[in-house]
Amino acid sequence: VTDYEEISYDNDANSYNPATDLNPLNPDTDNDGMSDGWEISFGYDPLHDNGEKNNDDDGDGLTNLQEYQNNTKPNNTDTDSDGMPDGWEVNYGFNPSYDNGEGNNDDDSDGLTNLAEFQNGTLPNNPDTDGDGVLDGSDNCKTDYNPDQSDMDADGKGDECDRLPDLSNNDFVDFEDFALFALHWSDTNCTGRDFCGATDFDKSGIIDPHDLAEIAQHWLDN
Questions:
Q1: pTM of the shown model
Q2: What is the dihedral of CA 115, 121, 123, 129, to 10 degrees?
C-alpha cells in the first residue's frame, strides 16, 4: 500500500487523520499481526483490530493470522493445490504455500505417500497410526487397532473399521444383504474366519436377533 493510499484511506487525501487513515509509518496500523496491504488484498479491515485474525474463514485449520504467517491464502483451503489442506500441512511441517512434491513423499516409510496419509486420516510421521503392529500402507483398518487383520466378509476392510453389515460388498446395506443373512439364520458354532458367512456380527457363535439388529441398525446405509 503506497503512502498516498494510506493517508487517503478515508477518501480524503488533503489531510491525515489517524482515526480514519492508515499509518504510513506502520506496516500494521491496527497491530493485529497482519500487514495493512495483506488485509486489504483479502478484504479485511486494516484500520481496526476487530478479531478477524482469530477467524478461520476458509475452514482449513488455520486462523487468518496463521494464514498470513505461513504465506497462505485465507480464502483457499489448499493454497498450493496439492490435495492437502493448509492447516494439515502446517501441522506436520510441510510447505502449504508451494507444491514442492511433498505429497508424493513417504516420509515415515509406511507405504503411504503424504497425500495418501491425509486421504486416509493417518499420520505422515508415524508408520503405524493405530499402533497395532501393522504398517499403515498394508493395514486393512488404518486408524483402528486390529492386529489380527480380521476381515470376515473379505471386502478388504478390517472388521474393526468395517462398521456396515454389507455382506454383498456393494457398499450398501439392502435386501441383497438381508437375503445372504437369512441363509444363515439360526446357524450355530459360527467360529473361525467365516463366522457363518460373515453374518455373526457380534461373534457370539450363533446367528440370532442380535445379528439381525445389526442389519436393521444400518439398513440402507452406504
A1: 0.77
A2: -140
**Of the given ranges (63-77, 123-137, 148-162), which has the lowest mean pLDDT?**
148-162
CA dihedral 164, 170, 176, 179 (to 10 degrees): -50
Measured over all CA atoms, what is the biggest interatomic distance in the chain, rounded to whole angstroms?
92
Q: What is the pLDDT of residues 133-170, one digit of tens each?
A: 999 999 999 998 989 998 877 778 887 777 678 888 88
| Rounded Cα–Cα distance for residues 57 and 37 (Å) | 18
Number of neighbours of residue 168 by Cβ within 10 angstroms? 16
Confidence of residue 198 (pLDDT cuts 50, 70, 90): confident
Write down the residue that cell numbers 473379505 correspond to. Answer: 154
CA 130 – CA 69 distance, rounded (Å): 32
Q: What is the pLDDT of residues 205-217, one digit of tens each?
A: 899 999 899 889 8
Contact 190, 208 (CB under 8 A): no
Q: Which amino acid is located at 161 in the chain?
A: C
Full 3-state SS string of the chain: CCHHHHHCCCCCCCCCCCCCCCCCCCCCCCCCCCCHHHHHHCCCCCCCCCCHHHCCCCCCCCCHHHHHHCCCCCCCCCCCCCCCCHHHHHHCCCCCCCCCCHHHCCCCCCCCCHHHHHHHCCCCCCCCCCCCCCCCCCCCCCCCCCCCCCCCCCCCCCCCCCCCCCCCCCCCCCHHHHHHHHCCCCCECCCCCCHHHHCCCCCCCECCHHHHHHHHHCCCCC
